[in-house]
Amino acid sequence: MKRSNIMTCTIIAIVALVLASCSKTPEYTKLVKADSDVLTRIDIKQFSEKCGDNKDIADKLKGLLKEDNLKASTRTRLEAIIDDPAEAGVDLREPLVIAVNMDSGKETTEIVGTLLDKDDFKDLIECIANEKGDIKLKEANGISYLADEESILAFDDESFYFGLLNKAEDKMVAEVEKKFSGELPNQLKDSKQWELLTSKDGVTQTLINGSLYDKIPYFRFRKNINIKLDELAILTNVNLEKGMVSMEYEVITDNEECKKMIADFDDMFPGIKGDFCQYVSSNGIVVAANINGEKVTENLKGIEEAKDILSGAEKYMKVLNGDITLGIIPMGGNIMDMNIALYLATKDNTLANELGGLGTMIKCEAKYADGATAVVSGNEPFTKAEPSVKSSEVSGKHLYISVNYDAIKKLDMEIADEYAMIIDKADRLTLTYDGEGKGSVILYTKDQDKYPTEYLMQEVKKQL
After folding, report:
1. Cβ neighbours of residue 417 closer than 8 Å, sequence gap 6 or more
2. Do the Cβ atoms of 127 and 88 come closer than 8 Å?
3. CA 340, CA 327: separation in Å to the nearest integer?
4. With the C-alpha atoms ordered 372, 373, 374, 380, is the resulting torsion angle positive or negative?
5. Mean pLDDT of 29-51
6. What is the Cα–Cα distance from 20 to 48, expressed in whole angstroms?
7. C-alpha distances in Å from residue 401, one per residue of 250, 404, 434
8. CA dist 254 to 143, 197, 240, 246, Å?
């Protein structure tokens, strides 16, 4: 399918900016609300520095310009940006901010950033508008803007604003004029939310306001949460390093009920001791936790939906008293063709007697010894694994999950093309909960000498 000229221009401008790429609060933070449902801060400069050498992509972009039926002025402008992205007029030394809101079932998205040179930016926007032909750059009350039936791009001497607002043009213009004049209530500028977003130094930070869950119609357990969701938020921070991309997350709240919920959860699932790591292989899927069965039972009794489950499981739950570590190694295409190693700290042999029945589905052996229950297939219980899970990586975590991607490849599963590249380049994925509402997700890649973003740019090259 032939690309439209305006889409080609936009794609080329954005990719070229990525290829290139002050302590005071940027002026653009007055343009979005601090209490937006989702706020994301993106350090384009840091991201671009970790994308590798992409001269071949720049050459491909120039090739696209020659293939498309662009006006000569537009082609010249975009070629200049490819050679020197600063020509676009955007200051990528300052991160961009994206704000997303859900109001009355409608989603709005806003993107704001700092201008390096207003005239260069204006020239770029006029070129793109001229390609479309039926929209013109207008001016009103100190701002220049370009608008259509659902979006608006506006800028002044210092900042730019792009909004997918789904409103009539006159309403969008009036709203944006107020933002640029500083009349927006509850601005992100100098707010607690901005302080949180800038407290991390990763490639991107995201703050998700708990009030978003009130706007999701089928949030299943909402009635069981006796706290004001708008009094909590989740902060994430993504870091890029050679051989890995990691995302830290934490719950942010001053609400005492929420703090109590987190403390109760940490009591039910305390820090892992690592007692069974030596018996579980790291070459498959690993799940580890520490379960205080009596405290879990006590807390579940207060949840109406859990009563039916608890009635049949209470006697088994109360037996759990410490680490639980599960290892699964797929052996072939059939999902049932696998070796398992399940170790649980238990008070007696109740679970060993019950779990022995798994032998009718998976050939395994259950055994209880010295306060531990083992359910194992493909080996004898309490046999050391090689390579085994590293106790140092698991100990102290409240939840630990690890997925080895070579093990996933053994399963006879249809994998979508967009995920095939991830599976091919990835080594393993870990997810942890570290207690006190904090945790991490880490994707390790096989090539320890490359940033994961270098693979992403390779995929961009294929799509151009």
Report:
1. none
2. no
3. 6
4. positive
5. 94
6. 6
7. 17, 10, 12
8. 39, 17, 30, 26
Pull the structure tokens for residue 236.
């994430």
What number of other Cβ atoms are within 10 A of residue 417's Cβ? 6
Average pLDDT score over residue span 88-114: 92
CA pair distance 154, 161, nearest whole angstrom: 5
More confident residue, 9 or 271: 271
- 3-class SS shares of the chain: helix, strand, coil, % to 5: 40, 30, 30
- Residue 141 and residue 94: Cα distance in Å, rounded? 25
Contact 375, 355 (CB under 8 A): yes
Token match 């449902």: residue?
37
Distance CA 372, CA 391 (A): 17
Q: How many Cα neighbours within 13 Å face the side chain of 436?
A: 2
- From first CA to last CA, the distance across the chain in angstroms is 13
CB atoms within 10 A of CB 374: 24
Using the structure block, give the residue that is written with the tokens 């994961």: 452
Name the 3-class secondary structure at 250.
strand
Residue carrying the six token digits 């009030």: 211
Confidence bin at 228 (pLDDT 50/70/90): confident
